[in-house]
Every structure is written in structure tokens, then in C-alpha cells.
Sequence to fold (466 residues):
Amino acid sequence: MNVILGAGLAGLSVSWHLRHRDCLILERSDVIGGHARSVVHNGFTLDHGPHVSFTRDDYVRNLFATNTDGDFHEFPISVANFYCGHLVAHPAQVHLWQLPEPLRTSCATDMRQAASRRDAGLSEAPPANYAEWLRQSFGATFADTLPAAYTRKYWTVDPTELSTDWLGPRMHTPSPAEIEAALVPGSLNQGYYITSGRYPCAGGYQRFFERFAEAANIRFGADVASINLLTKTISLKCGETLSYDRLISTLPLPAFVRMAVGAPDAVIDAANALDCTEVLLVDVFAPKIMQSDYKWFYVYDENLLSTRIHCVEGLAQANAPAGMTGIQVEVYSSRHRPATAAPETVAARVAQELIGLGFVSAADLTAGRVDIRWRSCPYANVMFTHKRREALNTLWTWLEAYGLERAPDDLAASTDWQSCGPAAVGEIVMAGRFAQWKYFWTDDCVLRGKQVARAVASNWRESTRP
Ligand SMILES: Cc1cc2nc3c(=O)[nH]c(=O)nc-3n(C[C@H](O)[C@H](O)[C@H](O)COP(=O)(O)OP(=O)(O)OC[C@H]3O[C@@H](n4cnc5c(N)ncnc54)[C@H](O)[C@@H]3O)c2cc1C
Fold:
């Protein structure tokens, strides 16, 4: 029996790609979907933070299209930034004209110098951290004023605390011509790595993968308490013990290690060295006053708790009743920057911020026409701190003794699905964003599920060969 821990996207994908054969999914909650699930509240449909499918992978695109019977829409993704009362199109480095003076000129001067150094091939030492990368890419003024501030809010640490291995195409470095274009008033320029997105017309993001759960063997309310890797047994909080032949975990890796019976101190230390952010999602339901095509907004101001904001009806009209808006605000914390107030206090402060930013009317708030709720997600984003690779290496090496097969890229921040080839799977398999501790989007979780299932199925074929 393949026992799969977690009915999020990665766990569902493994089971579905195996046609659910010999699969049992243990899920602690009473619903599928994990971080990608959708919830309904008073006629609003909400995801856990803005979820949009922006994958370029044809296999996932076709699968999600088939799963919704084509009932999704595709739209260009335009995003904006709030900065000191200014609305700046994203990415800000190619929309400098929207920054106030004298910041604009100062950013442009530094940015030109950084670009000429690159163009002239003047060698700079490779950046030792994200802060150095930002300065080399954008010059000091822009780097220190915008992305560094956002890093402290979103990643909860100073950019010096982060490595650069996760960047990939995420941050666009402008060429000299793009810097000049960025200064032209009214220009709208390219540079965001997400250009278009897909979203189901109704039912929230979850509709893209609900079909994976049809006919799946899922035990809801099965909260894993401990795992014995020697006896190959799992104990649930209800007291029941189950055996597995192969264990496929999608649980957060630090939690998995803490559940493992007899994990040595060095291994526990490595698990404790893995950092992630936590997000408080503040949901605000109000009469709609913000009219905008932007799909989400980043908030750079460090005096505001709101870090990213989106309106659910901007992703699908059916997500909110007519004339109403479902605003979702993300507020991040971590052990490096613990939350400074109780969730209800944070939520009340966010509601006030939304008045200042133009999403909610003060009169509606005073008249009680605004409903404010909050939800907490203890695992939001894997943090790419300098200790991550070494800690992961310790954990994977330890798990090898219990049947984990290592992959050449298992310390990398992401997986290149075009080049990674088939996987080998043993008795312990890790799948998904928090189990592999990678920068995984939903498409990565689907593809990892497919990769694991192929390897499991080929093991079956091997074992039944005469
Ligand atoms: C704010 C935010 C915005 C995002 N936006 C996007 C986006 O726009 N597009 C995109 O593609 N991706 C997006 N993502 C990423 C996406 O949500 C994740 O990559 C994906 O949902 C991870 O799926 P998973 O199966 O790996 O993990 P999870 O979804 O975490 O699934 C793990 C499952 O394990 C269960 N579990 C945990 N502990 C136990 C236990 N002890 N016993 C039994 N079960 C347990 C959980 O309940 C859960 O169902 C976003 C993520 C966040 C946080």
C-alpha cells in the first residue's frame, strides 16, 4: 500500500496519476486541496491568497482545462504597487516615471550606472546575498527603497539574510534602453515574469483539480501524530496505527521530522534550521468602491501591515455578489519577525489601511456594512535562507537510510521539469512545496505527483516481470 500523507495538490496528484491503485491518502482536515483549496463564505468564494494558474506547461494547462470542462477564463496579469501614496505599475523598475521626485531621478541615475557596469563587463564579485544582487541589478537607491522594503514585509527578513538561488526569472533586470523607457510618462512596460493567468469561471481555484479526488481513497480527519521509519508504521492522533509499504509525504518537512520516532538531535537541528513565513489572511467583505483591472497589489510601505492585496471578484466575477468586493490581504510573520498583535487586532488595523488605500469606504465601515474575518496559515512561503541547502542535505542523507532515493536537484530551489528526467522512488518519497522545501507552484505539485506515480508504476512493472 502507498500511504500518502496529505490531500493537497501534491498528494492528490500522486494518487490520481496512479489511478488511485493501492493508494490511501491520510488527511488531517475534512477537505481536500491544502493551500490551494477554495472556501465559500456568505456568497463569496475565496482562495488562500490569490491563486492563479500561470503555468506554461502544456500538460498542466490541458489537465486543468479538462478538469473544468473548459469553464475557465484566461486574462493578462497586470499588477500594481502602492508606495507612499503613489500607485506604480509592476514591476516598478520599468515604471520609474510613476515614482515621486527626487526618488525617481536618484533611482534612474544609480540604475544607469549599474547597467553600464554590467554592459562594460566590469566584473563585480558574485552577489553573496540577495541584498548585493539587488544593488548590482538596480543600483543602491532603488534596491534599498523598494525591493528591500518589500523583502522585509513579505520574506520577514533583511535581503542580506536570503540567498539568490530562488530568483530565476522572478526579478527583471532592466537594460539601458528599458531604463530610459521606464522614465517616459504614460509608458506601460513589460518585465513581470507572469504575463497571463487562468482561473475557473466559478467555484474558485480548487475547481482546477477537484476531479483528482473523485474515486480517491481519502481518510479525512486522519491527523498523523508519529511515524516509525523502522517498523514502517504511522500512528494517528486518534490512537490508530497503520502500516505502509511506501510512504509518500506531502507534509511540511520540519513537521515530518518532528513526528519521526527517534530522529537524532543533528537531524532535529537541521529541521529547525528550515525557515518559512506564516501568513495571516484578512478577508474583508464590503460594498465595492475600488474599480481597477489590477489583479493584485503589492504594498511597499513598511508602516502598513498589508503586504499583498487582491479582490476575489477580479479573478472571477462569480467570486462575489454583485456590487460587493471580497478583499483579501496578506500579512506575513515568521520567527524572525513575530506578529506584533493578536489576529483580531491586525485585522482591524488592516481594515483601516484599506480605507486609506481606497478599497473600503469609511462610511461603510462605521455603518457596519463591512465584515472582517481572518485565517492563519502557519506555512506560507519557504524561505531561501543561507542555511537551507545544508539543512536539507542533512535531512535527505538521514532519510536515505530509510529508503529515500535522492535526486540530483534535491537541494535546488525549484525543479526544471524539461530537463530533470524520471525520478527514482524508494520506500520514502517527498512530494510538494513544503515536503521538498522548494519554491513550488501548483503546477510543480501536479508534475511532481505525475513523476512519482510514473516511478511507482514502473517499479510495479519491474516486480511483475517474469
Ligand atoms: C499566499 C499563497 C499564494 C499562492 N499563489 C499561488 C498561485 O497564484 N499559483 C500557484 O500555482 N500556486 C500558488 N501558491 C502555491 C500553492 O498554494 C502550493 O504550491 C500548493 O498548494 C502546495 O500543495 P502541497 O500539496 O505541496 O501542500 P499543501 O497544500 O500544504 O498540502 C498538504 C496537506 O497535508 C495536510 N496535513 C498537514 N499536516 C498533516 C498531518 N499531521 N496529518 C495529515 N495531514 C496533514 C494538510 O491539511 C494539507 O491538506 C500560493 C501559495 C501561497 C501560500
Residues 290 and 359 are 5 Å apart (CA to CA). The mean pLDDT is 95. The pocket of flavin-adenine dinucleotide is lined by residues 5-11, 26-29, 34-36, 48-53, 222-224, 250-251, 279, 330, 380, 432-434, 440-443, 445 (CB under 6 Å). The longest helix spans residues 442-464.
